[in-house]
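Question thread 4412

I'm putting together a teaching handout and wanted feedback from people who do this every day. The idea is simple: show students a protein as raw sequence, then show them the structure tokens that encode its fold, then repeat with a second protein so they can compare. Below is the first pair exactly as I plan to print it.
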Amino acid sequence: MSQAENWTLGRLLVWTTDFLKRHGADSPRLDAEVLLAHVRGCERIQLYTAYEEVASEESRAAFRELVKQRSQGTPVAYLVGRREFYSLSFRVTRDVLIPRPETEFVVMEVLDLIKQRAEGPVRVADVGTGSGAIAVSIAKHAPHARVLAIDISEPALEVARVNIAEHQVADRVDLLHSDLLAAAPADDRFDVIASNPPYVRECEIAELARDVRDYEPHLALVAGPTGMEIFQRLIGEAARRLVSGGWLVMEIHPQLDQALRELFQRDPGWSEVGITKDLAGLPRVIKARWRP
């Protein structure tokens, strides 16, 4: 048997998993499976029934190149151009943050708040939409919601536009190029404002994982010296843009939990401040109700 014939899919996965593990990948087996499935144009689950199949030279060459880039730090999502979020598949590029499971808690909180409302249209703003993951997920699961997806990055908005069209919610999700809510029409008011804003402190950049630090857009990651800069601005702007009884829902850095609670407490218009913890038990989402 030739050397090429020895490279079954199973053997490729075993070798690649070990290789990526030695190069510091957090999830080497998953990375190997996602990359191989991408090269083969199939679902990951289909690999399990094809372990003994011999990989073609063409597919091995393409796979080898992707594995090389992954070993150098390029995130898998950027290599395959997609990431799953809230059971939906989203197009991603290096112009947007890679959607993460923790951010799904923002979507869950917003959907719960929408369900608590009386029937009728609901106006939602997604500030810093990036790939559009939050906006699209809300629109898909809340048919009576109208969402304004906002971002300061025009390239990010183009990625969001693709995802909005792909998930067929363009009739209920609008895009706006804006620094937070500054460019929203003056009379526009929202029932819910959601956001996964930048909250990394400048001093933390060097401590970030390599695939985050070197590849994901710092504009969407880094807030400033304290990590509170965008929160402070957004809380102030949201107070002028929410209807009475409306909600602000934001993903947070766990270490900023107390500081954000205190920030809301300084304005008596905010009430019912609540924290949602992620699966690791860490504070991950903060919400507050505006009642001027």
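The second pair follows. I'd like the answer to focus on this one:
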Amino acid sequence: MIKCDFKDSDDPKIQIEASLDLLNQINDLHKQNKTIELDFGSVNWLLPCSALLLSSRISELTAQGQHIKIIESTNNKVAKFLREIGFPLGNSSKKETHCPITHFKGNVNKEINKVLENINENLHKNFGDGVNYLIGELSDNIDAHSKFTYASLMAQYYPRKRFFDIGVLDNGLTIPGVFDKAKITFKDDCDAIRQAMEGVSTKNEGGRGFGLRTSKKVAIEGLNGEMHIYSRAGGILINPKRREKYVKLQKNPLIGTLVYMRLYIPKKRLNIYEYTE
């Protein structure tokens, strides 16, 4: 049995790294052909980033025939929240403050459009087209460049706290993997992500450089937000003051790429054309 333990924190970094440790344990049991049992009994708080990471892998392994048993949280609010968002296999229902977990294998834009319909009905008007742009840009990059076989998306709006969380995850080549294939030199996986953020082109191999660069400007400068990008064994966290923090994940590398953003309601309606290229 794997005990799922998360600190009661609003910090995505803390919960993402806890999730990566759990994913490592899940993958180890899967490799050993053992039944996987996840105990969420003591979980009192779970951010969308954690729900997304765990849900995507659980759903993917379940589709492959892996038996996974989940023990619900004894916290009724957490248990209800996870059911509403369709944890772990996804859900198509609409709620006022969140877009349930969506897993997809094929047409990314088709699935994204369903999510956008719900988002547009409930977000504060000052977000303008910012959220739509960011989701569209990231999904386009997944579809065109990552060569994924499984991808997931989820969003949660916190009106009282005045921020909006959104995560996009895929199991594709990863940013460092695309750089390797394109024979682009980088010091480590963090450096590959940094170069992609700066718009380094991977030519015919695609990559997320341009999408990440423009998304960063909209998210950080336009919406005073923060970005968490994890890919293979590296991660970069960028806060509203544009300070970057690098995270090395040699112990618990991510199979794929996660882009997670926390976006704050701007004081006036966002004009994305001030930040896009």
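Top answer:
Good format. For the second protein you could add a caption like this: The longest strand covers residues 254-264. The beta strands are 2-3, 36-39, 68-71, 98-104, 151-158, 163-170, 226-232, 234-238, 244-248, 254-264.
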